[in-house]
Amino acid sequence: MRIALFATCIVDAMYPKVALATVRVLERLGHEVVFPAGQGCCSQMHVNSGYIEGALPVVRNHVEAFTSADYDVAVAPSGSCVASLGHQQPMVARACGDEDLARGAEEVAARTYELSELLVDVLGVDNAAEQLGSHFPHRITYHPSCHGLRLLGLGDRPTRLLESVDGLELVELPDAQECCGFGGTFSFKNPDVSGAMVDAKIKNIESTGTGLCAGGDSSCQLHMSGAARRRGSQVRTIHLAEILASTRANPLELDEIADLSIPRVHATVTPSAGGAR
Amino acid sequence: MTTVDLGMPGTRIAYGSGNLYEETPFPEHARAELKNTQMRANIGHATHTIRGKRARVVGELPDWQDLRDAGSAIKQEVGARLPELLEQFEANVTARGGVVHWARDAAEANRIVTDLVRAKGVEEVIKVKSMATQEIGLNEHLEGQGIKAHETDLAELIVQLGEDKPSHILVPAIHKNRDEIREIFSRRMPGTGKELTNEPAVLAEAARSYLREKFLDTTVAISGANFGIAETGTLTVVESEGNGRMCLTLPKTLITVMGVEKLLPRFSDLEVFTQLLPRSSTGERMNPYTSMWTGVTEGDGPEEFHLILLDNGRSAVLGDPAGRSALHCIRCSACLNVCPVYEHAGGHAYGSTYPGPIGAILSPQLTGVAAEQNNSLPYASSLCGRCYEVCPVKIDIPSILVHLRDEDIRTKHGQRDQAATQQRSTVIEARQAEAEAAGVTPEPAGHPAEAKKKKVPSEMDLLMKAAGTVMSSGTRMGLAERALPLGRGALKPFGGAKWLPGMVGGWTQERDIPVPPNQSFRNWWKNNGENTQQRVAEDLGDTQLAVSAGGEVPASSLAGEIHQHAAWGAEAQAVAKLRAERDQAEGATTKDSPATSTGEREGEQNA
Ligand code: SF4
């Protein structure tokens, strides 16, 4: 199958290794991954901040990028951004009186899958160890981010995948359904409440004794891991895709998690400035 | 987003006044409340307990989602037929001996109540817990007129005696624990002494004997209403303590203040709501006391019944198609109990009578979001969606929050000038009326037009503009991301960033910023995208993978079906699963019985 990757803006710019992990998992199954070059953001930041008119060009760009590209299905490593495609993009287009764009957005949304959804529902993966070679011999817990959980209804797809990873022990997170407090611009418009929410989340993660929390949304993880660091907590976060990508031959080591760059083994071309790690 | 013209030429829309205003912007108010660790512990404990109870009793109903749909549909009907239903209601209440009054806003409602109480020549009244009378600030108003209103609901009494403000719709004293309550009672209840302990039963007994006297001595009672039935003119109050029943039956005169949106078309609609409300509210299958009365009945209950129908901004809410479902609210408080923002910040942080998620939409809608006091409320949410998931009448609170944010931004950009001017003048007039009623010289209020903001772009505007430009083009994103190595170089020696200037400083107040990656995925992919073979080889070595059975592409992804299936509904899915299991089990046991055919079961549900 030809699979179009929607990296999402935050993964593209801050967590390129998560996009790469997504690609590696899909390629392993024999699929071709393409990256529609015009892609930008899903528009959620604008919409949730009340800038619905301001979101219009962002929506239009996404719909154009994913309408003109040639692919069978699209995938994104984010429940929140995928949900936004179906939930917000048509709404933005209609609010601005562009019915054609709204229809286009609906078509793109109907072909776009969250990573665990794609793996389970379309690609038939029910055993990550056997079908993806996933190997990650660590105790972890899992935080289901709100939009994947409640808007998309991902259910137990992500945890079923994790439980089938070779060597992995999944410890249940108390009050897992509670929001981590990110909420986009909420995080800096209401920093105190957001901080109180992430306090509670970090305490719950600590109570599992794992120190490592997996999830499907890098934005929540940027917030949670940044808050943990600020509070001197040992809690770290990791994306589901990274765990699935890790194999016996090429295992993800715990001390690599903190670096957001593409892992060295894959970074065959060194960028001209800044230097690799 | 358009608003509907209600077609009433010359009638200015009445926005709400009274206890609907947040005096301090939410973020600051919340910051102060967050320091109250006792309050947070009390609320955290109480909300977690009630959440669990609610989840249990909701989870046992296989038709819960159908009930929610029914509740939502009935409330939609009420909105669509409101003028006609109100007239029908008025006619039926009048025919059964009640007197109906209409109040445009808080000031009018307060005046009507005061006149009615004065006409009875009394200086004390008893009250059933009511959100509408809190909204209009009735107790404070009566106090100013020399009339003492005694709250008879236990939690409301605690708040009143403690000279505090309610912080929850159902349990106004949720922020107080037993020790604090004991302290308030021993200070304010005559006759309580050392024997008063912090045992719930002892505290309840103290309140009971205190209230008994009031019930027997007072001849005028004031209540709100949970439902008003247009078809019959019947009013309903549901409660747990029996105090409501006393207030509704013992006094000679009963005055009820009811928001116009509390109507139901038919008596049979109660079937739906008496199931939805207690399960959502107290986590009980049935509430202990359901009182219904229709006009007056000779020799039974009050001799005189007055009903005040309150608008106070509700017509204005009804005029907004994107926000009007906020009027469906049955004040169950389920959304408060699951809301993490409410849990941490507490109810007082919302300023208005209506706290929590429903307050964050309803208060700014009733006053108009252009009332600057309330324009921080729509942002008081991380949009996690739990409120929508539990709301028994399916109010899509997150979507309304986003809609109100949009209204706020457009107001600030001067795109809603007419509405904004009208909304602001409501605030100014309400303040003046309040000051006059309290006998003080009103503060010189600026002309509403003056409140029209200078339209310089805010920091947020600039951020969104810049982000919009970059994020709406892959090329521009790629270019912007070229700066990543620079950021990495700058931050790496420090292990990340701890401080940012301006508005985004809110981010670094609570979190570090990590060292950015050395390049974006987009830019990396350009040079490395094609190396698939190499990647697979590195990852798998000589491992052979088991074959996956997939390959069928479904008609639509979850995102494509978001509006049909489980929108904001992990719980909806869980209940659907339960129902499917039940149906399967039923189908298995009574396979041949025609009674279990889908058609009949549907018939049952619609009955
Ligand atoms: S908005 Fe819904 S959940 Fe919240 S109080 Fe009203 S009816 Fe209950």
Description of the molecule:
The complex is a heterodimer of chains A (277) and B (607). Chain A has 277 residues and is an alpha/beta fold. Chain A folds into 2 domains: 2-118, no CATH class; 126-273, Rossmann fold (3-Layer(aba) Sandwich), CATH 3.40.50. Chain A has helices at residues 9-14, 16-28, 44-48, 52-68, 79-87, 89-95, 99-110, 115-122, 128-132, 146-152, 157-163, 186-189, 191-207, 218-230, 240-245, and strands spanning 2-5, 32-34, 73-76, 112-114, 139-142, 169-171, 212-215, 236-239. In chain A, α14 links the parallel β7 (212-215) and β8 (236-239). Chain A is globular and about 50 Å long. Chain B is built from 28 helices and 10 strands. A 6-stranded parallel β-sheet of chain B has the order 1-10-7-4-2-3, sandwiched between helices. A 4-stranded mixed β-sheet of chain B has the order 8-5-6-9. In chain B, β5 (227-229) and β6 (234-239) form a beta hairpin. In chain B, α9 (178-188) runs parallel beside α10. Chain B is globular and about 90 Å long. Chain B starts with 25 loop residues before the first helix and ends with a helix. The model of chain B is unreliable at 1-10, 447-451, 566-570 and 590-607 (pLDDT under 50). At the A-B interface, α1, α2, α3, α4 and α5 of A face α1, α15, α17, α18 and α21 of B.
